[in-house]
Design goal:
single chain; alpha/beta; Rossmann fold; 6-stranded mixed beta sheet; 5 helices; 45% helix; globular
């Protein structure tokens, strides 16, 4: 089991590492740059070429059925689920077969609304409750997948 983190804008990298350390699980941080090297032997940084979806493509091509992906990217989460892996948002909400279709539909709808109205939408700010929910959800998900 490995934890893959879509690390370009992930707010819970340190939290994922803390949980992974308790379980002795390797964490693979994937980004197109800007990752600080880690001395932790359970953390691997993988830098991909810059470009749209380069990190997502690398994760989707390398993730396995016992692995977990931490991402806010809904299409990436869908690809991970198709590979048999689990997908978890940084706020602790798990993507699964029952909710990924609706998540994709809402993403597409919101994108269409933004484009047609030429307006910008904003996500709710990330807070301590989200961080706490993530810690609990990742620990539960690891236990379930073991």
């Amino acid at each position: 089991m490995k934890i893959y983190i879509d690390a370009d804008a992930c707010p819970v990298k340190d939290e994922a590492i803390r949980v992974a350390e308790r379980h002795g699980i390797l964490v693979v941080m994937v980004a197109d740059g800007g990752l600080r090297p880690s001395r932790n032997p359970l953390v691997q940084n993988h830098i991909v070429a810059q470009g749209a979806d380069a990190a997502d493509n690398w994760i989707a091509e390398n993730i396995g059925d016992s692995d977990i992906c931490v991402t806010s990217d809904i299409p990436l989460a869908k690809r991970c689920l198709e590979n048999g892996a689990a997908a978890l948002k940084p706020n602790g909400k798990e993507f699964d077969e029952t909710n990924i279709g609706m998540a994709l539909a809402m993403r597409d709808l919101n994108q269409h609304i933004r484009e047609s109205q030429q307006t910008q939408t904003f996500n709710a700010s990330f807070n301590k409750t989200d961080r706490s929910n993530f810690l609990q959800a990742l620990d539960r998900l690891i236990q379930k997948r073991k």
